[in-house]
Design brief:
The complex is a heterodimer of chains A (516) and B (435). Chain A starts with a helix and ends in a 10-residue tail after the last helix. Chain A is mainly alpha-helical. In chain A, the strands form 2 sheets. Chain A has a two-stranded antiparallel sheet. Chain A has helices at 2-28, 34-42, 51-65, 91-104, 107-136, 153-159, 171-185, 191-206, 219-227, 245-251, 275-310, 315-328, 332-343, 369-407, 410-417, 422-433, 436-451, 453-459, 465-474, 478-506, and strands at residues 74-78, 138-139, 144-145, 236-240. In chain A, a hairpin with a 4-residue loop joins strand 2 (138-139) and strand 3 (144-145). By secondary structure, chain B is mainly alpha-helical. Chain B has 2 domains: 12-41 and 147-188 and 268-435, MetI-like (MetI-like fold, Orthogonal Bundle), CATH 1.10.3720; 189-265. In chain B, 62% of the residues lie in helices and 7% in strands. Chain B has helices spanning 4-15, 17-39, 147-183, 192-211, 214-223, 225-252, 258-261, 268-280, 284-295, 299-309, 312-325, 329-336, 341-378, 388-397, 402-430; strands at residues 46-49, 52-54, 63-67, 74-78, 91-93, 119-121, 127-129, 189-191, 263-265. In chain B, helix 3 packs antiparallel against helix 13. The two termini of chain B are 27 Å apart. The chains are: A mainly alpha (516), B mainly alpha (435). At the A-B interface, helix 1, helix 4, helix 12, helix 13 and helix 17 of A face helix 4, helix 8, helix 9, helix 13 and helix 14 of B.
Amino acid sequence: MVRYILKRLVQFIPSLILITFLGFLLNDYAPVDPAELLAMRTRESGKPLTARQHDNILREQRHKLGLDLPMFYFSINANYECDTLERIPNRSERETLKKLNEEYRNWPAVAKYYLSVKEAISFTSEFSDKLQIALSWVNPADNYITYPDSVSTSTYHSYHPYFFFHYHPEFLPHLKYTNEKYVQLLGIHDEKLIKQQLQDISDLVNKLPSNYRSFYSKGVDTSFSALTHSASIPYPTISFHTDNRYHRWLFGNGDGMLGAIRGDFGTSYQSGQKVGKIIASHIGFTLLFSLGGIFLAYLISIPLGVYAAVKKNSWFDRVSSVVLFLLYSMPSFWLATLLLMCFANPDTLYWFETSGIKPAQGYPVDANIFEKFLISLPYIVLPLICFTYSSLAFLSRTLRVSVLENIKQDYITTARAKGLPQNKVVWRHAFRNSLLPLITVLANVFPYAIGGSVILETVFTLPGMGFETYRAILGQDYPVIMAMLTLTAVLTIIGLLVQDILYAIADPRISYNRKK
Amino acid sequence: MATWQHITLWRRLKRNRFAMAAMVFLCVLTTLALLAPFIANHKPLYAVYKGQTFYPAFTAKIKYTVTDPVTKQTEDIDIEEADWKQMKLESALWPLIPYSPGRSDLMNADYVAPGKDQLFRTADGKTEPMPARFKHLLGTGVRGDDTLAGLIHGVRISLSVGIFSMLIASFLGILLGALAGYFGDSGLRTSRAGLWGMYVALIPAWFYAFYVRSAALSNALNSSILYFALQLILSLLIFVAIVWLIMVLFRYSIGRIDFFKTQVAIPIDTWVTRTIETIISIPGIILIIAIAAITQKLLGVIIVVIGLTSWTGIARLIRAEMLRIRELDYIVAAQAAGLKRVAIIFRHALPNAIQPALVSMVFGVASAILIESGLSFLGAFQVNDVTWGSMLAEGRNNFSAWWLVVFPGLAVFLTVTSLNLLGEALRDEMDVKGN
């Protein structure tokens, strides 16, 4: 048995790696780059940033999150691809470059083009900044430069070339517009659009007097035309990375985070809390409802299913069968909404509360646990009904079928023939042998606790794991999502193992020590 | 292929009144889904306006220019956006429900209950009580959008998610289950060179079939699901071709060395069972919500994800049946007669193994519909169209609009119930042991 369990655990490792890898993939394709999201949240409001500052913040943030590292221990790339694309901080630029490269299959040329555009951007923006300052020193009335006292002579001299353009204020918007056009170029990967954009820029520049065109270089144009004649034949290349994101996630980054293998899933992007803390503070409610629901379901379904099977075709059996069947097909979110509409609605009956687990102002200070329970009761009842009914229906139905099958067996006839009372025949013989399907349900409780409770917890706004996961997904809180994925996978394998063990206990014929 | 078995199954099924009722209901739903644009539409089926005849509900062209026969004034008509109910139509044939889902009717906005008085603006601009023909039979939503029209168009989304995702799941489940069950871990043998060749081939095959073509695939996904399917099949063909090519190469090169000549088994059963185990430990709903959050609102993606995560049950059933069937005399006879293995599996063994999976497929459609409506109820993915789940969510935000809670929920409930009824009946008639 122990050997069997160990074997299963070892077999499960590749699956676990695959599932966590899937989480990383989701992270990579998130609609908004997590680094940008975090940079947005942490940035001081009001201060406009230059493109370069923004890039630096992003770079720092990506470095902090480890996003500038490759994803896994090895990567399979195409020969024409760049394997260090992660180092480019801006996501849309990264994607443009990736697409350009997919189109033209020539990374050096793409990189050259990218650098030339970047250079043009920084040149034009610096130029326009300095020009703006220089222009502010010019008195428009007499074109006379009156630079402030705070400006030293050396600063003045560094600005000197820009006075070459005085006094042409209309030049500034042109320059800014050109800069914008270059920035836009970083988000375009379609050949036609790029050509259009380059044409626009050169048209813009051509409108200026000839001696003002010094800032405009042909660099972007030539590097782009170099791109278009250079496709190579693709073949796969494998590169290995010892330091990668997966490794850090699993074993820690040596800087505060211990790694998933030691139970540390990092810090939530949304709240800045440790993921472990978030789980610890929410899992209680989920377990309360899942376990409470399943406990109630067993409590009701065992007598119900057995009685219906024993009294087969009685009116009780028929009515309960129909009701259970209807319950079984009932969508849980509909039942939840109906219950809320009928029993937690000021217009109809306001018996229960609509959301949460306790009053908004919290419990009274001196309340003991029983009083707390009484206060929370109106919050608990409706969710508990919803968490119970579906497994209740499933359990009773399977139990009925299973008992019915067993009651037909010879050993029941024997038991009856030897004069055992009906009670003993049913409970000791028929019921015990019908236990297997019930075990299956129990094994599914734990993994189902997170995924299955998403909808119900969201409908009732219960602060459980399901709702938390849903919020994490909407807020792109990947450390939390990764933790949930891993946790569910581990719970599933534990559930499967528990199921195997319980099978062996319930049915001695099942043994895992058999040799081939 | 109507064999004797299938005919008797059908006859027995016909005696089950509940199953037949469910079947009729499902047929009605399918018809509704197929004909939805002609049953509930804000455009008339046929209209005569200023002497010119239109078939707006059937028209793909959008712009028309009409000349008034008396005043000779021309007027541009946008078939889609024109408010046909307020035009002076000389004659018109309206669909059964003269509304489209999600189109606002501002005269009856802000939740009008089914029995309540509704208002109608005539062609002259006068406000009148709603004529019986144009009544919103099941009330309206916040913008005056017709509930019944939403329900009818919602059938389309629910059924297509259910059916298409289950088609994907059945294809995968039947194929993998059959291969795993028939061959087991030792049934499929090849030379060591071939096996190694296959392992080596996986990387280039994946590379050329999917990686290099990723741009083409993602563009196809954005244009239409059918085109995407075509591209996907092309990719799969490339994949198979490369694997086969490299296996052949290996066999004829290093395959001449004795060590590589020895026959080894391909552990196909282990692969499939491990994959199944991996997939059942992924929390499906979380995965779908996460992917929906990434891909924004592509229904096709949801269908594919549901399909890719729900084939395991079918595969397990087929595998178990195949394990039983491959030992039967007629299969052994077929093997002895020297039939090709593909023929044995797909012509002789599979038809007898497929029945229990049929039940699982019917239940699978039901659960896919439940997942789709549950997720659209949560707002986890927004399709542009109105779905049962999204209508229910609107009702959940405003309980005074009870019709938005009751009717869409009832639609989901009835669909799922009838699918479950059908599945149960099939299971009972085929005498398959449950679960």
